[in-house]
Amino acid sequence: MNYFGDPTIWLPFVFAALMGVSILIYVILDGFDLGVGVLFPFANNDEKDKMIASIGPFWDANETWLVLAVGLLLVAFPSAHGAILTALYLPVAIMLIGLILRGVAFEFRAKAPAPHKRLWNNAFFAGSLMTSLSQGFMLGMYVMGLEWTLANVGFAILTAVFLTVGYSFIGATWIIHKTSARLQAKAVEWAKGGIWGLVLGIGAISLATPFVSTRIFDKWFSWPEALYLSPLPILSAVLVGWLWSMLRKMPYAEDRRSWQPFAGATALWVMAFGGMAYSFYPYVVPEQITIYEAASAPESLFIILIGTCIVLPTIMGYTILSYVIFRGKATELRYD
């Protein structure tokens, strides 16, 4: 099989990779600002303002990656888009309501009079929680093959909780990086608790995934396939140990290494995503539709690829630019 000469082979693979990268970037970037929202009840009013300021320049741009990922799924793999969205219609609707609620709350809390600010703080928390739980539920259902059985729904509920805790962990590491003093110390304690929720979530998915199909089981435990996967759990365990050791010693003098917990959390998410991608490839709908079966016509994909080569660098460019411009500790977020 000519992987590089046959467009029916390499074009679907390229689009699957682009969609996967978009989802991964979204989970990391919007994951930390969703996590900041989930942590709202544990902060006082002044700390809430600082937490909002830490994500203010980035949060709406972070969601662009979700739009890109869903757009690529629609245009490159339309039959898979239909199958996934049909199976996950309810959690997708809840996620959209949550995204709308947190977006409205984010803007209104900045201008609301003091008596109403608490209402919008609660709305921002509720929107963040709804979005996180719905995404975790969708992840669980996807892993279990999108079949609505009692056992699968129970697993998806468990995954929803773990993903929400995982988001709160990466959100706490972001707060460590962007704030100082008492709030930073609080975030260290939040991260100490959140890291074990993330570990449990990754562990639960890792235990369930091989039993979704014999194909995935063989990928995980047959030789030499198991050799390809072995670096991921080893590196993940080392990362967790390093993160835990570092969090126990924080804060460091002169705010040294405050960026490292976020970098470590990001690396954990990358490895977890890599394990899932390895397990489910080449299926875009687990054990039902491969990326090659779901792909649009090569002629269509080629035209879409040209547009993607323009859009993707633009999104990547302004994302990087915003993080460079607003680097350093968070300051007061103002709209005047």
UniProtKB/TrEMBL annotation:
Annotated localization: Cell membrane
- Principal localization reads membrane
Topological relation to the membrane, as annotated: Multi-pass membrane protein
Molecular function terms, GO-annotated: electron transfer activity; oxidoreductase activity, acting on diphenols and related substances as donors, oxygen as acceptor
One of its Pfam families is Cyt_bd_oxida_II
* A GO cellular component annotation in the UniProt record: cytochrome complex
Listed GO biological process terms: aerobic electron transport chain
Please state what the protein is called: Cytochrome d ubiquinol oxidase subunit II
Name the species this protein comes from.
Answer: Yoonia algicola
